[in-house]
């Protein structure tokens, strides 16, 4: 029989025999431990040997209200005994109907129609195809291109990867991809010396205007991650960029796609990041937090105007053609409904504001660290940019993998921190306490101290 302290090793061995993990050079597991998690409890994950890890990154930014959340678990159990799945073409079910009604009420005015898919990348595929097809149905088949921001990330299926600009994910597959038009990001970290984030946003809007002037005739849509470019390094920008972008998209007759897959559902301080720019996009992509981090589900919301361009007698051939077997899965919809019910029943955004303020206070001293170029925060997302040289902001060479050292230290100290390269970030579930935040920051500071010494 396996002794309790051998349980991790046993599961890890079996895992590595057959499983190929995402975003992983599997060879790393010759020295990086595979951590078998057997249980979740609020913001904590518990491995097979009984070690506990505070989930500082909400398990890839999905979890909102804790692991194995009892309310969501009960709703799922009930749904599993009622209806687990049904084909979503020609058939429907109450959880999907209720969820669509609630999403339309919650999201910015004008978004009236909901198309379900299974994950974030699939939602981006839907939005890109729908935008292209809208223009085609309007007699504008010449519009075939998309504008994306430098440093953007919208997923890793071929369409979503096409409009992404993170070299790590894109470079290898570039020969397979569409060629987007890249607009310089309003990322405040890349602002000119002395420039405010708002001034950077204005300057970058000028660049977007110039691109639209040249390319609007062949462009379907501009796609952005509102306020925070997450996988690109938690780079943040001023909300005036969103306001200005909405105006430009209207002026040049291209769609505005807001990819709120990572930033939606309260992450940035408002329910949706677009609210801070006071804008309604033509397409809004939602996933991750939509089910509280329980099950894969995504939704693309769009306008009546877009919907009407597809609505025609069958033989006109205008229908939107996109389907996934698990579209609108009832279990996932039910988890999403319970997640939204928690938002209604509890003062989530108010509590997040207090937690975010505490996180900001705890991170502030890191600004003086000789290897920290920037500490930035937007609501429940905070990031610390580690550099080799504070003055010039020269980054550490990526091959030194300094961030990995922070991750490994975290594992020994009961914290799941998984930096993006040399950017250590915090994106905890909303159910953390101030003491939990203290733990994450303490462990991160220790990890950073180890990571920057040569
Ligand atoms: C902004 C954004 N869009 C799309 C995606 C892709 O979502 P998924 O991983 O569910 O395919 C992600 C994932 O991190 C994301 O951050």
UniProtKB/TrEMBL annotation:
Record-listed N6-(pyridoxal phosphate)lysine modification sites: 288
GO CC terms of this entry: cytoplasm
TM region(s), chain numbering: none
Subcellular location: Cytoplasm
UniProt keyword annotation of S-adenosyl-L-methionine present: yes
Catalytic activity: (8S)-8-amino-7-oxononanoate + S-adenosyl-L-methionine = S-adenosyl-4-methylsulfanyl-2-oxobutanoate + (7R,8S)-7,8-diammoniononanoate
Swiss-Prot/TrEMBL GO biological process terms: biotin biosynthetic process
CDD domains for this protein: OAT_like (cd00610)
Residues in coiled coil: none
Database matches in PANTHER family: ADENOSYLMETHIONINE-8-AMINO-7-OXONONANOATE AMINOTRANSFERASE
Quaternary structure annotation from Swiss-Prot or TrEMBL: Homodimer.
Protein name (Swiss-Prot/TrEMBL): Adenosylmethionine-8-amino-7-oxononanoate aminotransferase
């Amino acid at each position: 029989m396996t002794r309790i302290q051998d349980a991790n090793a046993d599961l890890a061995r079996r895992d590595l025999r057959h499983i190929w993990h995402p975003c992983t050079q599997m060879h790393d597991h010759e020295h990086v431990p595979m951590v078998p998690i057997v249980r979740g409890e609020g913001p904590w994950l518990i491995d097979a040997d009984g070690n506990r890890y505070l989930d500082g990154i909400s398990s890839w930014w999905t979890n909102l209200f804790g692991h194995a959340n009892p309310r969501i678990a009960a709703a799922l159990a009930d749904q599993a005994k009622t209806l687990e799945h049904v084909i979503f073409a020609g058939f429907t079910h109450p959880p999907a109907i209720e969820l669509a009604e609630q999403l339309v009420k919650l999201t910015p005015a004008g978004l009236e129609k909901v198309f379900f898919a299974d994950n974030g990348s699939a939602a981006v595929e839907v939005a890109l195809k729908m935008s292209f097809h809208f223009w085609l149905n309007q007699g504008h088949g010449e519009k075939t291109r998309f504008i994306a921001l430098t440093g953007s990330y919208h997923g890793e299926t071929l369409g979503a990867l096409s409009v992404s600009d993170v070299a790590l994910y894109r470079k290898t597959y570039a020969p397979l991809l569409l060629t987007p038009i890249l607009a310089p990001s309003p990322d405040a970290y890349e602002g000119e010396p002395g420039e405010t984030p708002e001034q950077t946003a204005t300057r970058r809007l000028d660049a977007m205007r110039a691109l639209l002037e040249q390319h609007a005739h062949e462009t379907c849509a501009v796609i952005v991650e509102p306020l925070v470019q997450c996988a690109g390094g938690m780079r943040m920008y001023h909300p005036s960029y969103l306001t200005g972008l909405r105006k430009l998209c209207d002026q040049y007759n291209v769609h505005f796609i807001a990819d709120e897959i990572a930033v939606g559902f309260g992450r940035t301080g408002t329910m949706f990041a677009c609210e801070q720019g006071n804008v309604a996009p033509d397409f809004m992509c939602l996933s991750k937090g939509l089910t509280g981090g329980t099950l894969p589900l995504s939704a693309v919301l769009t306008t009546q105007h877009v919907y009407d361009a597809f609505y025609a007698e069958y033989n006109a051939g205008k229908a939107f053609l996109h389907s996934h077997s698990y579209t609108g899965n009832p279990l996932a919809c039910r988890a999403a409904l319970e997640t939204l019910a928690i938002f209604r029943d509890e003062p989530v955004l108010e509590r997040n504001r207090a937690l975010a303020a505490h996180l900001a206070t705890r991170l502030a001293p890191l600004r003086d660290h000789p290897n920290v170029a920037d500490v930035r925060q937007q609501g429940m997302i905070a990031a610390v940019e580690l550099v080799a040289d504070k003055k010039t902001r020269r980054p550490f060479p990526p091959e030194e993998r300094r961030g990995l050292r922070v991750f490994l230290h975290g594992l020994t100290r009961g914290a799941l921190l998984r930096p993006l390269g040399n950017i250590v970030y915090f994106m905890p579930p909303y159910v953390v306490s101030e003491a939990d935040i203290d733990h994450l920051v303490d462990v991160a500071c220790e990890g950073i101290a180890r990571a920057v010494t040569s």
